[in-house]
Amino acid sequence: MDSKISLPQVIAMGGAFMGFVIGSSFASGQECLQYFSGHGVWGSIGVGIIALILYVWFNTVIIEDGRNLRLKQTNKIFEYYLGKYLGTFCEWFTPIMLFFVYAMMISAAGSTFQEYYGINGDIGRVIMIVASLATVLLGLKKLVQIMGIISPFLLVGIIVISIMAIVDNPQGIKDADEILKTVETNSTFSKWYTSGLMYGAYTVTGVVPYLAGIGASTATNKKNAIWGGIFGGGAFIIAVMIMNFGLLANIDVVYSLEIPSLYVADQVSPIFGQIFAILLILGIYTTAVPMMFTACNRVSEDEKSTKFRIAAVVTAIVGFVGGQLSFSTMVGIIYPISGYVGLIIFAGMIYTKYIKKKTYEYFLNSIDEMTN
Predict the structure, then answer these.
(1) Interval 95-128: pLDDT, tens
(2) Distance separating alpha carbons of residues 208 and 84, to the nearest angstrom
(3) What CATH number has the domain bearing residue 282?
(4) Considering its fold, how many domains does the chain have in total?
């Protein structure tokens, strides 16, 4: 077996992970504001260090485990780490959580239309619900795949805008800690080290089966799996930190905004703001559709069945109701809940990998799913 490092393979795996996590929650700046910027300059750096360690660790471990297990049902990776009962719980928790993320995307659409265009938020919510429901019901997977290219543009756009914001107002970063003493931010956790831990934990909950699938389908050896995980996790956190300093440079204004990144983009240039607003709406769409599809797919795997279609319509209706909550409020509620489940997953990974040292063969035999 070839044990050489394949750069294209490493980039492909890292890029696939970033494409999954670079959704509208990241692009909006709201999660960065709550988990990073609200803790000030040095606090946010501490958050970044902890998050970097966790991201690189769980990426490399899960991709390598996925490569070795090659599960037909990637959700079974939860059972490998947590056992039958907790594993089954996580298999069900993930699509339920993704439903709530869908509702959060509806809320984000409303906030974007209202905050940037000055249009009633319900109009934005309805537009996003109709677009996502139509896509899921019509099975337009190709359209979603094509639209998926928006993630790299969002990432590049965020980095460019944030760097320009930093260069334009470096004094804002120097003053950020003093300003944060006089305003109340939406920081979910009061301690920077808790934010760092929970930021890594909430992400791992939804991405475990996805990373296992990347490992099974892409990684050809251990070195590629490890470097793919390092590249994906490391590059994403670096992008988050650049955004963090862009927000800190404007913290006196963005601390209370639902979509802080839009303000930063508009301050750099109105043209940047207009382009970024469109990219963000498209990013919300490309996040909302797979969230809705995954939630409905747990009800019925046949997307043409009546059960699946009913589930999609119900998801859309309930999503509109849930989307009435403010975007920042939903980020502050949903992500911590996901984070607590993520802590359980971390504990299971540590126990399985380093204490019990469960072998791949033992697990595959126990679920009667041997590799081909």
Answers:
(1) 888 888 889 889 989 988 988 888 899 999 999 9
(2) 16
(3) 1.20.1740.10
(4) 1
